[in-house]
Automatic annotation (TrEMBL):
This is Rieske 2Fe-2S domain-containing protein. Pfam families: Rieske. One of its GO terms (molecular function) is 2 iron, 2 sulfur cluster binding. Residues 5-99 form the Rieske domain. It comes from the Bacteria. It comes from Trinickia violacea. Belongs to the bacterial ring-hydroxylating dioxygenase ferredoxin component family. Keywords: 2Fe-2S, Iron, Iron-sulfur, Metal-binding. Its cofactor is [2Fe-2S] cluster.
Length: 108
């Protein structure tokens, strides 16, 4: 059974905002994209650069180190096969958002 770790409440993350959380030694960035919460590992698959401060346009995040772009919802690069972010499932219960660490989509 996946471990669900509480990371953010509904009132902490408005649309367009993000939060860097440290969960069991891992940096995880949560994004509110149009009311949907998504979670990625805070490491670019290209060279491990922090993604927490990357520019976000809609659901597309640009890595601040080398400019690679990723969809934070799917983890994929838009319109190309290439590197992929590690994403984590999130779920909501009673105003609290949880990230599931045992179930993740590893980069290819």
């Amino acid at each position: 059974m996946p471990r669900r770790i509480p990371v953010v409440s509904d009132d902490e993350l408005a649309p367009g905002q993000r939060k860097l959380a440290f969960v069991e030694g891992r940096g995880i960035v949560l994004f509110n994209v149009g009311g949907a919460i998504c979670a990625i590992e805070n490491a670019c698959p290209h060279n491990g650069a922090s993604l927490a401060n990357g520019r976000l346009e809609g659901s597309i995040l640009q890595c601040p180190a080398h400019g690679l772009r990723f969809d934070v919802i799917t983890g994929c690069m838009p319109a190309v096969d290439g590197l992929r972010l590690t994403t984590f499932p999130v779920s909501e219960s009673e105003g609290q958002w949880f990230v599931s660490l045992d179930t993740r989509n590893e980069p290819r």
